[in-house]
Specification:
The structure holds 2 protein chains of 2 kinds. By secondary structure, chain A is mainly alpha-helical. Chain A is built from 11 helices and 2 strands; from the N terminus they run H-H-H-H-E-E-H-H-H-H-H-H-H. Chain B has 15 helices and 2 strands. The chains are: A mainly alpha, B mainly alpha.
C-alpha cells in the first residue's frame, strides 16, 4: 500500500513538474510572476475537450495529437498575451506585471464560463489508454504511465535544449544575468517572448492531459496555480531542476497526506513550503 | 517633494474634503432605501479593509496574498469571545481587532524574514493554514457553518444609524492611517519600501519597520472584519478565505497603487460593479479584468490617478478664473 501510494505520488509529481517547469522558466528569465499560468493550463484542458472529438476520436494517437494541437493553441494565446500586453510593462514596477497577469486570470475565467458554462465537462479516454498495467499486486493505470512518459520526455527535451543548443545557452545566461545578455547584443524581448510561449505551451499540454482525469470546470485555474507556485517556490524560483525535485517531493507528500490525513493534505504541503522558505532564509542569514 | 507630488498626496489633511464626504455619505444613508444603505455600509467596510492592505502594497514594499485572514479573524474574534467565552458584546468588539493584530504580529514576524515573492508566498501559506483550521475545528469555530446569533445584526439598529456608526469608525481609522503614513513611522515605512538598503544605512532595519506596518495593517483589517461581523451578525470561514483576499487586492490595484486613496476608490468602484452590474451582466469579472488592463496600460496610477488629474484640472480652472 505504501509503495503504491509513493509511486502514485511520484507520478503526480511528474505531472506537477510539467506545469511548474513553464512557470519557473518564465520567472527565471523575465522575473514575471505569472498568475495566468493556471489559466493557460485550464485553457489547455478546455481546448482538448473541444478538439479531441475532431481528431481521430477514440484512438491514442488522435488523443495525443489533439493534446499537442491544444498545447500549440495555448502557446499562441500566451504569445499574444506577452506580445501585446506584458511586453509593455517589463520596465514598470513588478506589481504592474502582477496586475496584468491577475487581469488575465479574471478575463480568461469569465470567457471560459461564457463558452463552456459552469458545469464539469469530461473527456473520455480512448479505450487503449483506459486500462491498467498490473505488476505483482500493483495496479498502474496505463494513462498515468503514458503521462509519466510524456513528463520524462519533456524533462529530457528541456534538458537537452538547455544544455546543447544556442537558445539554451542564451536562456541560461538570461536567467543568471539579464543585463549581460543584452550587452552581448541579444534582443531580450525575443528571449522573453520565446520563453513565455514555451512556458504557455507546457501549461497547455499539462492541462490537456489533466482533462482526462480531473473534473474540468472554470475553477481549475485556481486549484492548479497555487500548487504550481508552491512547487516553484520550494524548488527555488527560476530553477528547473529545483522544480523537478520539488514537484516529486510535493507529489509524494500530497499522496501520503491523502493516505494518512486526507483533510490536512493541503495544510501539510503549505507547512512544507513555509518550513523550506524559513529554513532557507535562516541559512542565508547564517552565512 | 517630487515623490510626494507623484503620489498625489498633500501633507495636511484636507478637512473640508473629509467633512463634505462625511456629510454626503451620512445624508445618503438616511435618504436611501435599506438595500442601498446596505451597499453603502459594505463599501465603507471594504474601503477600510482595502486601505489597510494598501498600506502594505503601496508603502511598505510587501505584498500579502492572505489578507482576508486578518479581516476574517476580526469577525471570528468577536464571535468566539462572545459565543464561546461568554464575554459581553462590547468586550467582543474590542477583542476582534486585537485578535487580528495578534495574528498579524505572529505571521508578520515570520513573513518579514523573507522578501518579495517569497514573503508573499509565506503570507499565502499562513492564510491557507489558518483557513484550514477555521474550517475544520468545528467545536471552536463552528466549522463550515460558522457562528451566528452572538450579536444582533447591526446591533439592532436601523440600517441608516448603523451606517452612521460604521461611517464614524471607518473615517476615524482612515484618518489614523493617514496620520501613520505621514508621521515619521510612515516615512520610515515608505523609505524601507522604496529602498531597503538605503533605509538600513540610515539605521532603519527592514524587518522591524515592515513588521510594524504589517501589524497596523492587520489591526485595521480586523476593525473592518469586526464591523462586517456585526453588520451581518454572523461569521463564516469564507471571511478568512481566498476570495476575500482577492477582493481586497483587486480593489487596491483598481484604485491605483502608490496613492493613499487607492483602497477607498477601489472599494467604491469594485462594490458598485459587484452590486449593480452583477444583476445585469453575469461576466462582470471580465469587465474588472479589462479595466485592470486599461489601468496598467493607460493610467498606472489607477482611479486615484484619474481623480487627481480631474482635481488638478478643476483647481487650475478655478485659479485661472480668479486671476
Amino acid at each position: 500500500m505504501l509503495i503504491v501510494q509513493i509511486l502514485q505520488g511520484l507520478m503526480e509529481g511528474v505531472f506537477l513538474f510539467l506545469i511548474a517547469s513553464g512557470l519557473t522558466l518564465i520567472f527565471g528569465v523575465s522575473r514575471i510572476v505569472n498568475f495566468a499560468h493556471g489559466s493557460f493550463y485550464m485553457l489547455g484542458a478546455f481546448f482538448t475537450y473541444q478538439v479531441h472529438p475532431w481528431i481521430a476520436a477514440g484512438t491514442p494517437g488522435g488523443f495525443f495529437t489533439s493534446i499537442l494541437v491544444c498545447g500549440v493553441l495555448v502557446a499562441v494565446v500566451g504569445l499574444a498575451f506577452e506580445f501585446f500586453f506584458l511586453r509593455r510593462v517589463y520596465h514598470a514596477e513588478e506589481l504592474m506585471q502582477l496586475v496584468l497577469t491577475l487581469a488575465a486570470v479574471l478575463i480568461i475565467r469569465d470567457l471560459t464560463k461564457f463558452f463552456w458554462g459552469l458545469d464539469d465537462v469530461t473527456v473520455a479516454l480512448p479505450d487503449d489508454l483506459s486500462g491498467a498495467v498490473i505488476i505483482g499486486d500493483m495496479f498502474l493505470p496505463t494513462y498515468q504511465l503514458a503521462m509519466v512518459t510524456v513528463g520524462v520526455l519533456v524533462l529530457v527535451a528541456l534538458w537537452a535544449v538547455l544544455k546543447f543548443t544556442r537558445a539554451g545557452i542564451v536562456l541560461r545566461a538570461a536567467t543568471d544575468d539579464r543585463g549581460m545578455v543584452a550587452l552581448l547584443g541579444i534582443n531580450q524581448a525575443h528571449v522573453f517572448t520565446a520563453v513565455f510561449t514555451v512556458g504557455s505551451f507546457l501549461a497547455g499540454i499539462a492541462g490537456g492531459f489533466a482533462a482526462a482525469f480531473e473534473s474540468v470546470n472554470y475553477l481549475l485555474d485556481a486549484r492548479v496555480i497555487v500548487l504550481a507556485f508552491i512547487v516553484v517556490v520550494i524548488g527555488g524560483l527560476g530553477s528547473l531542476y529545483g522544480a523537478l525535485f520539488a514537484a516529486l517531493g510535493v507529489g509524494v507528500v500530497k499522496s501520503l497526506g491523502l493516505l494518512w490525513a486526507p483533510r490536512l493534505s493541503m495544510v501539510i504541503i503549505f507547512l512544507l513550503m513555509a518550513v523550506v522558505l524559513l529554513f532557507r532564509s535562516l541559512r542565508r542569514t547564517g552565512e | 517633494m517630487a515623490a510626494e507630488r507623484r503620489r498625489g498626496d498633500a501633507w495636511s489633511i484636507d478637512w473640508r474634503l473629509v467633512a463634505v464626504a462625511f456629510v454626503v455619505v451620512a445624508v445618503a444613508l438616511h435618504l436611501s432605501p435599506p438595500l442601498v444603505a446596505f451597499a453603502i455600509i459594505e463599501v465603507l467596510i471594504f474601503a477600510l479593509y482595502a486601505s489597510a492592505l494598501n498600506l502594505l502594497l503601496s508603502y511598505s514594499g510587501m505584498v500579502s496574498f492572505g489578507h482576508a485572514v486578518y479581516f476574517g479573524l476580526g469577525a471570528y474574534g468577536l464571535a468566539i469571545t462572545i459565543a464561546k467565552f461568554g464575554w459581553p458584546i462590547w468586550a467582543g468588539i474590542v477583542a476582534g481587532p486585537l485578535v487580528s493584530a495578534f495574528f498579524g504580529l505572529v505571521y508578520g514576524a515570520l513573513c518579514v524574514q523573507l522578501t518579495a515573492i517569497y514573503a508573499a508566498m509565506l503570507t499565502l501559506a499562513c492564510a491557507e493554514i489558518t483557513f484550514a483550521v477555521v474550517f475544520q475545528w468545528f467545536d471552536f469555530t463552528g466549522g463550515d457553518s460558522g457562528i451566528s446569533g452572538h450579536v444582533p445584526a447591526m446591533l439592532g439598529l436601523s440600517p441608516a444609524w448603523f451606517g452612521i456608526v460604521v461611517l464614524v469608525v471607518v473615517t476615524l481609522c482612515i484618518l489614523a492611517l493617514w496620520r501613520v503614513v505621514h508621521a515619521p513611522l510612515g516615512l520610515t515605512i515608505r523609505a524601507v519600501g522604496e529602498n531597503p538598503v538605503r533605509a538600513a544605512a540610515m539605521g532603519h532595519g527592514r524587518k522591524r519597520v515592515q513588521l510594524a506596518a504589517f501589524v497596523i495593517s492587520a489591526f485595521l483589517s480586523g476593525v473592518a472584519g469586526t464591523l462586517y461581523g456585526i453588520f451581518h451578525g454572523n461569521v463564516f470561514p469564507e471571511y478568512v478565505g481566498v476570495l476575500f483576499t482577492i477582493d481586497g487586492l483587486v480593489m487596491v490595484l483598481l484604485g491605483g497603487l502608490y496613492s493613499f486613496g487607492a483602497g477607498i476608490y477601489g472599494a467604491i468602484v469594485y462594490k458598485l460593479l459587484d452590486n449593480v452590474m452583477a444583476h445585469y451582466f453575469e461576466y462582470w469579472q471580465l469587465v474588472i479584468g479589462v479595466i485592470l488592463v486599461l489601468v496598467v496600460l493607460v493610467s498606472p496610477a489607477g482611479i486615484a490617478g484619474l481623480v487627481a488629474r480631474v482635481v488638478e484640472l478643476v483647481r487650475g480652472r478655478v485659479r485661472g478664473s480668479e486671476t
